Amino acid sequence: MEKIRIQKLLADAGYCSRRQAEALISSGKIKVSGHPVKLGDKALPTDLITVGGERVYIPRKKQYRYLMRTSWIAAALWIFWKMWKSGYIR
User: Fold this and answer.
1) What is the pLDDT of residues 79-90, one digit of tens each?
2) pTM to 2 decimals?
3) 19-44: per-residue pLDDT in tens?
4) For a Cys-Cys bond, which of 7, 27, 71, 80 suits 21, CB 3.0-4.6 Å?
5) How much is the pLDDT for 21?
6) What one-character-per-residue DSSP string does 20-54 give?
7) Share of the chain above pLDDT 90, in %
8) What is the mean predicted confidence (pLDDT) over 51-74?
9) How far separated are the first and last CA of the chain, in Å rounded?
10) Please, which contacts does 51-60 make with residues 24 or more away whose CB atoms are closer than 8 Å?
11) Cα separation of 35 and 50, whole Å?
């Protein structure tokens, strides 16, 4: 896993925007594993990040999965057509 800038981690977590995170870092309210940070510092998403003593939970990366829709659409249309042809549906 690679390290990411702390302001990006906070923005991805939905805690604040990147610019607001930079202001919080400059004011010294953000700590990573108990150590104060400065602008440009990086951390792992698994590190303990606190803002004013409150822990920030960093969510895992979103995973997107694509559905193969063409196969079930074709099957449904084929079944509908067979039922229509047989007179079951009118």
Assistant:
1) 888 888 888 776
2) 0.65
3) 999 999 999 999 999 999 999 999 99
4) 7
5) 95
6) HHHHHHHHT-EEETTEE--TT-EE-TTS-EEETTE
7) 59
8) 79
9) 59
10) 51/10, 51/15, 51/24, 56/9, 56/10, 56/13, 56/15, 57/13, 58/9, 58/12, 58/13, 59/12, 59/13
11) 10
Report the amino acid identity of residue 49: I
Give residue for tokens 């690679």. 2
Q: List C-alpha distances in Å: 60 to 23, 40, 45, 46, 68.
A: 25, 22, 8, 9, 25
DSSP conformational letter for 4? E
| pLDDT at 18 (0 to 100) | 95
Q: List CB contacts of 85: < 8 A, sequence separation 6 or more.
A: none
Residue with tokens 């104060």: 36
Contacts of 11 (CB under 8 A, 6+ apart): 17, 18, 21
Q: Give CA–CA dist 72/50, Å, rounded.
A: 48
